[in-house]
Model the fold of this input.
Amino acid sequence: MDDPTDSDPTAGHQTMRDFLEGIEEPVAGDDPVARARAAQRTPLPKRFYTDVSVGETDGGFTILLDGRPVRTPARGMLLAPTRPLAEAMAAEWAAQEKEINPFFMPLTRLVNVALDRVGPEAEAVRDEVVRYAGSDMLFYRADGPQTLVNRQAEQWDPVLDWLSRSHDARFFLSEGIRHVTQPDASLERVRALVPETPLKLAAVHSITTLTGSALLALAVAEGALAAGAAWAAAHVDEDFNREQWGEDEIATARRAARRTEMDAAVRLLALID
Done:
């Protein structure tokens, strides 16, 4: 088994690059539970290193496995702008035991995505976040029952109030699923909040796809909303339905896996500030 450091891959063998490319989180996001099952079906590489440390180089900090820097699946340097972020990723590598399971390395995977995929297509990713905002979940309200209507208002209105008060971005609401076109000026103000740097942008995009709301993601990134409150706001409808119809084990497992991804994105934002 080859490693993700500077050594050249050996022909005919699966490399760590191949392995990570097969299961890391894509820019558009997917189902973490399905990804976990896929990882279980994929033969996991054996841990091939003994020592994990952090090194400093031009432009940032690297993760060193037995003294050699880790590279991304695209063979770029796995580079962190801050030591705390590098140390957090190094801890993920150090925590691997006999086998290496990237599913349990969410921070490393998200940084890989940021460097390999988001960075080269940053404007396209920013455009996608703005498109989410144009039809954001927070605009579409239930017409009943009143309990659900009230919960949506309690958890969603503060985010819209923050955007209006702090960024002069005002939006129209709709009952049901009838599409409502939002003001261009407001969406331009949203665009101004979308990060341009790959790591922050990857984190915001990940939170957007995991919650279904670009506005929740931006509120978290700007420090206007706690991650737990954003997660609860994203699941108002789901929690209401669960109260009415009972818990679904598969949905609960999927939600827990997605929360792991959410926590990694929020942690990334904290570690690069």
In short: The longest helix spans residues 249-271. Strands lie at 52-57, 60-65, 68-69, 79-80, 140-141, 174-175.
